[in-house]
Structure formats: structure tokens, C-alpha cells
Design brief:
This protein has about 180 residues and is of the alpha+beta class. The protein has 6 helices and 4 strands; from the N terminus they run E-H-E-E-H-H-E-H-H-H. The chain has helices at about 20-35, 65-70, 75-80, 115-135, 145-170, 175; strands spanning about 5-15, 40-45, 55-60, 85-95.
Length: about 180
């Protein structure tokens, strides 16, 4: 996962008696999406009950690539094919930045990592980041008032955690986080 990777959670119900047709159409749509620039992955998560909502977790390399797929004729065609077997319009939720730290690419949304593991993984990223910044950057900020130095350091921590540290930590330790 690079720093710009985005996830979109899509929720929708199949019409009664249409679950198999809905699943088949979604699988075929995934095949088309695989050939689309910027596509990384997609996973269909079936509902917990027959009348429940399906969830799709889509991953694209950037928001622009996801927007390109969303506006494409291919996707529009699939939305038309899905209309007879799906209820209503799909609901969308975008994940990126801080939201995507712990967002699994292929794990049901209901299966969240234990809070203590998320906390530990966050600390594992925050501690060395803050230590590095306080040791090597803070001395160069001595000319600033205390609150301004704190603001600069915390901005750097937030940026580094969102775009550099956590994407890598969750990729490297995802196996431990979600077991």
C-alpha cells in the first residue's frame, strides 16, 4: 500500500432470491475492474443474514484512479446489470489517511482488530517518530516559542504517521494485528 492508496466500502442488499445472481455479477465486475488502471483489489463480503447487506471493499492506488473507475462506462454498465438484482442505490464510505490505518483490504468490517493491538501498533509508530523528531528536528526550532515548536512537531508526527509510518506498519504487521 502506497501513501495515496484509498479504500471504498460499498454496502448494498440483494433483492430476495437474487443473492447468487448478485454475487455472480459482482465477481464479473471485479474481473473488469482488475484491468482498470490503478485497481489494486476488491473483496465481496456476504451478509451475516440472508436479508443483510453485502459489503465490497475496493482498493485503488489513488483517489483519482478510483474516480476514473467510478466515472467509467464499464462501471456504469455494471450498475445497470446489477439494478434488477439489487435493492436501492449502493452506500459508499471512503477510507484514506488516518481512517485507513487499520482498514483491512479483505476482512469484514465487523471484524475489527483488538483495541489493545491497534493501540500498541500506534505506539510502535509514534514513539520512534517522536523520539527522532525531538532529537534531530526540535533543536533546530529553538528560535520558536514553545507552543509553536509543539505545533510543528505534532504536525510532522501527524503527517509522518498518516502517510509514511502507519501504512508500512499495518502492511508489515497486519498478520499479527488481525489474528
Amino acid at each position: 500500500m502506497n501513501d495515496q492508496t484509498v479504500f471504498r466500502i460499498v454496502r448494498r442488499r440483494a433483492k430476495p432470491g437474487c443473492a447468487l445472481a448478485y454475487e455472480a455479477l459482482i465477481a464479473a465486475m471485479f474481473e473488469d475492474a482488475r484491468r482498470f488502471p490503478g485497481y489494486l483489489s476488491a473483496k465481496l463480503i456476504p451478509p451475516e443474514t440472508p436479508e443483510g447487506e453485502y459489503q465490497i471493499i475496493q482498493q485503488f492506488s489513488t483517489e483519482a484512479e478510483m474516480a476514473r473507475w467510478s466515472a467509467s462506462g464499464e462501471r456504469a454498465s455494471w450498475m445497470e446489470k446489477l439494478a434488477p438484482v439489487a435493492e436501492g442505490d449502493p452506500e459508499y464510505r471512503m477510507l484514506n489517511g488516518l481512517d485507513a490505518w487499520f482498514a483491512p483490504a479483505a476482512v469484514p468490517v465487523g471484524k475489527v482488530p483488538p483495541r489493545w493491538r491497534m493501540t500498541f501498533l500506534s505506539w510502535l509508530g509514534i514513539y520512534p517518530t517522536v523520539a527522532f523528531l525531538l532529537t534531530f528536528i526540535a533543536p533546530h526550532l529553538e528560535f520558536l516559542p514553545t507552543m509553536a515548536r509543539i505545533a510543528v512537531i505534532t504536525i510532522l508526527v501527524a503527517i509522518l504517521m498518516s502517510y509514511v509510518i502507519m501504512p508500512r506498519l499495518t502492511r508489515w504487521l497486519g498478520w499479527w494485528l488481525r489474528r
